Amino acid sequence: MTTAPPEAQRRLLEVQALDTRLDQIAHRRANVPALARLIELDSQLADLETALVTSRTAANDLRRAVAKAESDVEQVRIRAVRDEVVAERDAAFAELDADADRVSAQRAEMAAPLDEKLMALYEKMRGRLGGVAVAALRHGRSEASGLMVPGTELARIKGLPPEEIVFCEDSGRILVRGEDAF
Known about the structure:
- With 182 residues, the chain is of the alpha+beta class.
- It has a domain at 6-132.
- It contains five helices and four strands; from the N terminus they run ααααββαββ.
- It has helices spanning 6-30, 33-58, 61-111, 116-128, 151-159; strands at residues 134-138, 141-142, 166-167, 174-177.
- The protein has a four-stranded mixed β-sheet with strand order 2-1-4-3, with helices on one face.
- Strand 3 (166-167) and strand 4 (174-177) form a beta hairpin.
- Helix 2 (33-58) packs antiparallel against helix 3.
- The longest helix is centred in the middle third of the chain and has 51 residues, at 61-111.
């Protein structure tokens, strides 16, 4: 059986909360609205460039000169808009990266005093269970599964030493017992 002091188990719950926050930040970073606008603008630019080539081959010298001048002006406008969109994306990325750096530093500080075996178990379970390896046992309910723990199992858990690690029967995640566990 894996054991860890109750305070280490509670700290592991806090590490889990920080890892969940990092996952949320990464998700938000991958879905910044400015990315879709950049793709749309690149598509518009490609359409405009195709139209320019077609008009050059079909028009006389004068028309070609006018079309080229108009096209050049339009490309400058599109590039100006695109540069604004790129700046907006870069600013959003910078903000998210700074947030991720802060949360990573908090996580490193929170995880530093924890036992290597406990952290190895945590990381292994986190990878296997979709990022969430630890949850609280509160008022007889597993926050890992959202289900009430059967009375016989609660009685068994109550009888265990506080440093004994408990697992949720339904989700397989570590359950951390606090003052409000039962």
